[in-house]
Specification:
- Helices cover about 10% and strands about 40% of the residues.
- With about 140 residues, it is mainly beta.
- The chain has one helix at about 5-20, and strands spanning about 25-30, 40-50, 50-60, 80-85, 95-100, 110-115, 120-125, 130-135.
- The chain has a domain at about 20-60 and about 80-130.
- Strands 1-2-3-4-5-6-7-8 form an 8-stranded antiparallel β-barrel.
């Protein structure tokens, strides 16, 4: 028992140290997409830590409610803010989930495909507007 306890502590410490090694993809990433078929570019800000992706994309062209002079049903508002989550891999392509920040029960979500190419991160929508963004590491 006296030999087993120090061995267990040593293994636990080495696993903790190994788990905290930063991945080459870790860091803050920023960039702007093309407009895609919607002609609405997104500004991306992603934070990747130990492979966990958390970030957002903001549509600078999204318009809020406008006065309805014809008393017709208002057009649906386009989502202006997207939350992005997922798990990154330093090699190959990985998937991300984007969820629109909208009111009510209108839940909008999409899938993104991302690829790490050395100094840049390429993020593409797999449906919807099919925008593509090339993100660079920010300081």
């Amino acid at each position: 028992m006296r030999i087993l306890l120090p061995t267990v502590v040593l293994v636990a410490i080495s696993v903790t140290v190994a788990a905290q090694q930063p991945l080459p993809i870790d860091g803050e990433w920023r960039g702007k997409s093309d407009g895609g078929s919607c002609n609405a570019p997104l500004d991306f800000v992603l934070s990747i830590e130990s492979g966990i992706v958390d970030g957002s994309a903001f549509d600078t062209t999204a318009q809020g409610p406008t006065p309805n002079l014809r008393h017709a049903p208002p057009p649906a508002a386009t989502p202006g803010l997207w939350q992005i989550h997922g798990v990154a891999r330093p090699t190959g392509t990985f998937s991300l989930l984007s969820v629109a920040s909208v009111k009510g029960t209108d839940r909008r979500e999409g899938k993104l495909s991302a690829r790490f190419d050395g100094g840049s991160l390429t993020v593409s929508e797999t449906s919807g507007c099919r925008r593509t963004a090339r993100l660079s590491r920010s300081s």
